[in-house]
Design a protein that fits this description.
The protein is mostly beta strands. It has one helix and seven strands, in the order ββαβββββ. Helices cover 9% and strands 23% of the residues.
């Protein structure tokens, strides 16, 4: 399982845009408990305790996650999930 993107501020974001946002100081690290290590980073160097500007925890999107692009065509699906910052495709429908 690998991280292919993130969700924060009500949108999807690619790893590169999330890394750039974090490097620019765009995330606040708020540990959930005193036992949490604020220095633990995921594979894209995003802290596990990162929160967005709205105070919500940054959530990773894993390669195994079911995303809206996997909705059957008869339900109006099969559009790619793209980064809300740069427009890069994060996931496309399979099949």
């Amino acid at each position: 399982m690998r991280v292919i993107g993130y969700t924060y501020e009500a949108d999807y974001h690619c790893p590169d845009c999330a890394k750039a946002r974090h490097a620019a100081g765009g995330f606040e690290c708020k540990p959930a408990s005193v036992a949490d290590d604020v220095n633990k980073l995921d594979e894209w160097d995003i802290p596990y305790c990162a929160h967005d500007g709205e105070g919500n925890l940054i959530h990773p999107i894993f390669s195994t996650d079911e995303l809206p692009c996997h909705i059957p065509a008869e339900a109006g699906g099969y559009s790619p999930v793209a980064c809300g910052d740069c427009g890069a495709v994060i996931a496309e429908a399979e099949g």
